Fold:
Amino acid sequence: MAPDPGPPGRGRFFGDDLLDEIRARTDIVAVIGEYVPLKRRGANYVGLCPFHPEKTPSFTVSPDKQMFYCFGCQTGGNVFTFLMKREGLSFTEAVEHLAGRAGVALPEPDLGRGSAAERAAAERRRRERELLHRVMDFAARFYQRALVKSPEGERARRYLRRRGVRPESVETFRLGYSPPAWDALLKALKAKGVEEAVLERAGLVRRGRDGYYDLFRDRLMFTICDHRGRPIGFGARALDDGEEPKYLNSPETPLFSKGRALYGLHLAAPAIRRGGRALVVEGYMDVIACHEFGFDYAVASMGTAFTPDQARSLRRLTDTVITAFDTDSAGTQATLKGLEVLSAAGCRVKVAEIPDGKDPDDCLRSGRAGSRAEAAGGSGSRDGRAAFARAVERAVPLVEYRFRLAVRRHDPSTVEGRVRAAAEILPVLAAVESPLERGEYLREFAGRLRVSEEALRAELVRWTKAQADTRRRGGVRDTDRRSRDNRELLEIAAKAGNGEGGRPPAAVAKAERILLACMMTSARGMSLVLEEMMQAAEWCREIGLLGPVGEEVAAAADGTGDPGAWVLGWFSDPGHRRVAEVLLGLWGSREGGSGEWPPDAAGVVDALEGGEGAETVGRVVFEVRALSEEAAVEQAVRDCVGVVKEHRLNSRIEELHRRISELERKVSELEGDEAGADGAERARLQSILFELIREQIDLERHTDGGTGHWQVPGD
Structure:
């Protein structure tokens, strides 16, 4: 095997001798045996392939050759390859994992590659992550001690006793308590020599007008770990009824992203591999209860919105996922969204419907007496565990679950109800890939709805044809739509300002100038701006804010779109947008090999038509001088993109408020069908508004009162 250069920015280089030593000290049968039940057959071991479904073992492991191979799907390799395919690791991560397991010391990262700036940046990132991991581990231990030993922690201890949480779970899940003082953790870490800015970067403190203070205070703490069991973030629950927010999660950090992490995954992974299935629940307490009662393959997402990244994490461990969310209306919607995301990731998904509308924690800890206290003592929880186990074992596939929902919503005893239920199930039937399976479901549902099988089949054919016609018409208009969306994005950007002539507020204008300065500072600065703006645009697309951004992001991700389209949309000031357009053009030329970076300010002015924007370039150059260090550039990019994100979100919310008010006036003046149409549009916009306000609240969690975190440098 050739020496590994490692992924970009990591600077790792492993020679053949080192790799051979790791392989020699690693038992490939033992490693793969943790994922696949293996049986000895002669000199080799065989089992069911973990990379494709099969009933007859065709997966073979050779301990002599230290190799594996599947004769069914032709997948093979060594122990490094297996971990990369099964866990989704990079080669470097697989080597690091196996070296640690085998007790082989790895050399320090090779910093002899790349330019001096690239080597320095790689080393800073490596050291920062190491420091953040140490800081997060200290914080987890600090909170654990506060829960177990501090007098103030009695409130949290009493809460856990009331909820029936066992003492061993407190240790296993690293539960903790954040003291009520404003700076308890801050003081403890500063005494260890950790700077306040590092703690803010870790998501543990905030910066206010009077200095830094602890983010989490007087809350029960749930430690969120990565797949290796290292703390990367926290979930914090309020202990007083009515305190808002009830749950407060760590902000996005270099270590933690709530869209990628799964609570309890590091504990559940071995059981998921052994049993071949995962159980997804909604909350921290649900996961803890499941593990206490023997369902140790349970995990939870960070909230109810399941993401593709989380689905891929589970898919690497198993292809069978059971969801057991709350059965209230919000839980039903979360279940449907989770099923769709998991299905798209290639998982076979099922839904466990918990009886009596309970969540998993309530169900498991309930019994004949029905009290948590008795459940904690074990006297009444057997019935609850049995009921939950039945729900899990009787979990139904997506098609069946959607059919049951349709029947609940529409009375099948009436003709209208049967027709509506049938119409609701058509998209689900159409999504079934196997014609045989689809035919069986169609026959089954027709009988249960008491409608003609032929009629239901004809409706399915008609619906499928209508969808195909719609997609075909949409494809013809695709190019025109992209152009129109592009113009709409720029128009929205121009209207986003609150000042005269569509100019943005002063803080937003300065943030845009600093972003331009970062683009002109270095190639690294330009790359950072493009990366952060892409992520911000993806955020827009995910929350339904500005549809055109979503279209351009999708195109850029495919490599078919123009990145300038979605970058320019973030600049509200026309002059800033023009300078950004020139910089993007020069950047494109530079990547084609005809220019260096950063560009000369005079060259930027020359590229502006008629010299327009020369004054803007001068202001930008002034900002460049304040960005001498790369760390300052990285922080400036993050903060300034945060400013424009917040501005865009607030502007969109104000626009929706105005449109809803106009529709309310129209509805009050109109009658009949016209009033109904406007009323429906008003309801649609209100639904969008509520979602954006939730996002606004989430953004404000990262700010000091909604405005203090995203500091425009220099203010």
In short: Residues 486 and 548 are 6 Å apart (CA to CA). The chain has five domains: 16-102, 117-249, 265-394, 403-476, 479-700.
